[in-house]
Amino acid sequence: MNTKFLDLLAQKYDSEEKVVTEIINLEAILNLPKGTEHFVSDLHGEYQAFQHVLRNGSGKVREKIEDIYKKVLTEKEIKEFATLVYYPEEKIKLIKNEFDNEEELHQWYTVIIERMIKLISYASSKYTRSKLRKALPSQFVYIIEELLYKTDEFTNFKEPYYSKIVQQIISLGQADKLIIGLAYTTQRLVVDHLHVVGDIYDRGPEPDKIMEALINYHSVDIQWGNHDVLWIGAFAGSKVCLANIIRICARYNNLDIIEDVYGINLRPLLNLAEKYYKDNPSFRPKIQPDETISDEEKLQITKIHQAIAMIQFKLESPIIKRRPNFNMSERLLLEKIDYEKNEITIQGKTYEIENPCFATINPEKPDQLLTEEEEVMDKLLFSVQHSEKLARHMNFLMKKGSLYLKYNGNLLLHGCIPLDEDGNMEKMVIEDKAYAGRELLDVFEQYLRYSFAHPEKTDDLATDMVWYLWTGEYSSLFGKRAMTTFERYFIKDKATHKEIKNPYYYLREKEETCRQILEEFDLDPDQGHIINGHTPVKEINGENPIKANGKLIVIDGGFSKAYQSTTGIAGYTLLYNSFGMQLVAHKHFNSKEDVLQNGTDVLSVKRLVDKELERKKVLETNVGEELLKEISILNSLMEYRYMK
User: Fold this and answer.
1) What does the alpha-carbon distance between residue 473 and residue 479 come to, in Å, rounded to a whole number?
2) Gap between the Cα atoms of 202 and 273, Å rounded
3) Prediction pTM value
4) What is the DSSP secondary structure assignment for residue 501, as one 8-state letter?
5) What does the record list as coiled-coil region(s) (predicted)?
6) Can you tell me the distance from the alpha carbon of 535 to that of 208, in angstroms, rounded to the nearest whole number?
7) Are 39 and 195 in contact (CB under 8 A)?
8) By the 8 A CB rule, do 558 and 538 touch?
9) Using one digit for the tens of pLDDT, what is the confidence trace for 324-339?
């Protein structure tokens, strides 16, 4: 081992005793039960539902409470206590209004603090004291640690001491802050690590709040979804990705995200839209039942929607032409239109164009941008790349994200591994070399990271490849033969709207296919699982999210309200603790107020995916691998400096 490295390490561990202590500590940690992993996917801007799932740990908080108090508290009391742990600030305000005098309130404080301390003690039982200390609210660390010792049967003689601590907390007006701190500590202890298996952005109204929650979360990783990559691409300089995100925001009445949240001025685009476009039923925004919008605003969005859609279609053409290996020439649809007859010919069949909006199209050069359109896109791109908040969010996505992740023996990926009908890994030729399977995903990620690192390059292969990840046939994120956005706007025949999925999506039902994919990623096919997002599970039609004899689990059940009528549920999440995996289905989340007032929760059913024969230890995890490396280095330091 490099002696210079060991000399540097010796500055931190400057005595034999320090090295020995650390080795003992790490070896001991390896024998603790593994922490609970929490998997979520396809959040699509639905912050309110997501943050509730985050706070209740997909039912783990309630489970811990019931383990301790099921025989002690009534169902109503358990609901009240669970809600207090989920939303401590709001619940405390409601409860304080119920008391007639200070004495009753103080009695409630005493009881709740004791319950909270007991819950913390139980939830932290598989962690080191050091890890627990880091999770505690900093201003109360000493006090909480003292109260935690109360659970020791040999400290009964100190009861007046503990009682005095609690009384002083209450009399000094610190009880609310302590309870709030204990609630958030419980949430943190119940889930050790969070996996977000793609698609934070688009459709829903508050992806920025989800990003802020993730940035502040104690331990998280992200597997990019196709919608996330679209936002990354826009920030990295892809105008066609930028056009797509604005179009989707217009479609779902979420332009506030662009303008108000990220500070991107849409006025130039609105001016262009007002000049060239009118009302058009194909481009009116989708309005949720709980949303209100004026006719004037709806018309403005409809015009913006048309303007940016036509710019998007124009911007796609040059990429398709300069990248023949993308194999997308059939998507040069602007060239297939008869603009006099308002007809389009696709694969030999002619269709009438419904609700056309081609005022900015030059039939001789249909993909040619107007000077005004070019200026608008230049201004929009400048605003996007100079948005401080968006920069922070995109940098976090890049830092914590990847196309796939191997974690604790499982493969996490948002979309698919492109396969042919026979189950072979599909090959894509990039710069005269064919790639498939894991190697193809690695190349995609290399291009994406290069594009992000060079935002000044707006039409190089790397930037074009980010757009391909959104819409390409062999993209692991898209997973379909073609994206029929144009057809959905302009052709009435719904047969043209159908997007043919990659064979992966029916072959993943076979255990043999999943085992083959796990082996491709050097994972044990007997122990490993594939954890997927991207495709809503239509439980309403009897679809099972657990596939291939338990080898593959789909956890996109429909956080997005736009999908819930077709899925029948409001999302799946997955839990993986030392005892095994549990899939959790969720009911529709009404509101935080409903939870606070009625104790309503959104959990419906847990399905056992896989039960460990022996409780899994830290030693058998990714964290364990890293600790073993650290132990090896420390042993080398011992031999080098202290055992000569």
Assistant:
1) 7
2) 22
3) 0.92
4) B
5) none
6) 23
7) yes
8) no
9) 999 999 999 999 999 9
